[in-house]
Write a structure and sequence with these properties.
alpha+beta; 5-stranded antiparallel sheet; two-stranded antiparallel ribbon; 7 strands; rod-shaped
Length: 253
């Protein structure tokens, strides 16, 4: 081999080293830039695959669990509200029973009717203030029950809402005293614990002559006496037997 040939070989070798070769597939030369693009595309495709097949199902499952959690929380809050309402209802029921007890205490009963005559006579006597001998002293003249036993209220005289829910016992009363004494007695009757209604009130001058202990007529001192008559109605709640009888009577109408 000559020197010139050696020189030519060195030049060709230098050209080979200066132009590196890249793999070619399907006519595409895979340069570093092309390879970088392909790696990026593969990475993006992998990310999309993971997003669609792993992340999105996990997100959907999270959303479902979150919905279930919110639903359960709502049910818990609803049950807590129901428990509070039950406590409130029980408290209102206790208050209603207490109010009912207080209201029923205002009405009469069989026991108060038995002592009504004594109570009324005491009120009439207390209505007489200390007076001279020939002055008028209040006196209970008449105390007569109008009915043998209490009757159920059905005539609407106390309002339609009361019909069939209360019964009353009527008593005819007559007292003698001055106007001031009579007024005081009526006010005291209204203060009695059992609920009493005063009806058919009538007053007239009493034709009574003042006398001394021997029966000798005396000139009257002070106000003239009046005779006052009225009817006392004692209202009572119905017992179970009365309520059954009232319901039966209502069905026949």
């Amino acid at each position: 081999m000559t020197l010139s040939e050696d020189l030519n070989f060195a030049e060709h070798a230098g050209n080979v080293d200066s132009e590196p070769t890249y793999p070619v597939i399907f006519g595409i030369t895979f340069t570093p830039k092309i390879i970088g693009i392909l790696v990026g595309v593969v990475g993006l495709a992998g990310a999309m695959y993971m997003l669609l097949n792993m992340v999105m199902p996990a997100w959907d499952s999270y959303q479902q669990k979150q919905g279930q959690s919110n639903e359960l929380q709502g049910q818990i809050q609803q049950k807590e509200a129901t428990v509070k309402q039950i406590g409130k209802v029980k408290e209102e029921l206790a208050q209603a029973k207490q109010q009912k007890k207080q209201v029923l205490a205002l009405f009469s009963d069989e026991k108060t009717l038995d002592t009504l005559l004594l109570d009324l006579n005491r009120l009439v006597e207390s209505g007489s203030s200390p007076t001279p001998l020939n002055a008028v002293r209040a006196k209970l003249q008449k105390f007569v029950p109008a009915t043998d036993k209490p009757e159920i209220v059905t005539d609407g005289s106390l309002g339609a809402a009361v019909n069939g829910k209360l019964k009353r016992s009527s008593i005819n009363v007559e007292i003698i005293g001055t106007y001031e004494q009579t007024q005081s007695i009526i006010r005291n009757i209204e203060r009695l614990q059992p609920l009493l209604i005063v009806k058919d009130y009538q007053s007239a001058l009493a034709n009574i002559q003042a006398t001394d202990t021997s029966g000798k007529p005396l000139r009257r001192v002070g106000a003239a006496p009046i005779t006052t008559s009225f009817q006392l109605q004692a209202l009572m709640p119905l017992n179970s037997e009365d309520a059954a009888a009232a319901a039966k009577a209502a069905t026949k109408k």
